[in-house]
Amino acid sequence: MPFIKKIIDKLIKKNISISVAESCTGGLIANTITKYSGVSKIFSYGIIAYSNKAKSKYLSVSKTNLSKFGAVSKEVAEDMINGLYKKEKTQICISTTGIAGPNGGTKLKPVGLVYIGIKVKKNNHIFKKIYKGKRLDIQRKTRDFIFRKINELI
């Protein structure tokens, strides 16, 4: 993961604050960020909002969006970064919501489907990805995609 360290160093050098709201990645992104010395200057907050109740309570995810589109949707990924931003006002807000498996997939929402929200400078970017692999593979691929996208967006 040397590429992630370079991106973290870039965030520290540019003093760009970051916070995360994770569901399907279960804290992997926050864990990755906090592995590096000096991140306390930029890493503000991380929340694992795994249940729909937690998404609504802590991130103000719309109950309408949850019932209409489901937790694994672009609408919920966007609600998550917007809710996180309202709480923390960091320059970068990240959200993940998906089906990491091995169970829980359907034809419309297969295992490996992940929606990723990245808010940078108040602009929302929502990505839909479908990854193959085991649970941890899907979580790691999600994390790696996020850091590559952050590098492009800053």
Structure description:
The chain has 6 helices and 5 strands. A hairpin with a 2-residue loop joins strand 4 and strand 5 (123-130). The mean pLDDT is 97. It has a single domain (2-153), classed as CinA-like (Maf protein, Alpha-Beta Complex), CATH 3.90.950. The chain has helices spanning 2-14, 28-33, 52-59, 63-69, 74-88, 135-153, and strands at residues 18-22, 43-48, 92-98, 113-120, 123-130. A 5-stranded mixed beta sheet has the order 2-1-3-4-5, with helices on both faces. It has 154 residues and is of the alpha/beta class.
SSE inventory with pairings:
Layout: H1 2-14, E1 18-22, H2 28-33, E2 43-48, H3 52-59, H4 63-69, H5 74-88, E3 92-98, E4 113-120, E5 123-130, H6 135-153
Parallel strand pairs: 1-2, 1-3
Antiparallel strand pairs: 3-4, 4-5
Structural descriptors:
single chain; 154 residues; alpha/beta; Maf protein; five-stranded mixed sheet; 6 helices; 5 strands
Termini, distance in Å? 19 Å
Total number of beta strands: 5
Order of helices and strands: HEHEHHHEEEH
What's the multimeric state?
A: single chain
The CATH superfamily label reads CinA-like
Question: Nearest-angstrom radius of gyration?
Answer: 14 Å
Concise structural overview:
With 154 residues, the protein is an alpha/beta fold. It contains six helices and five strands; from the N terminus they run αβαβαααβββα. The chain is globular.
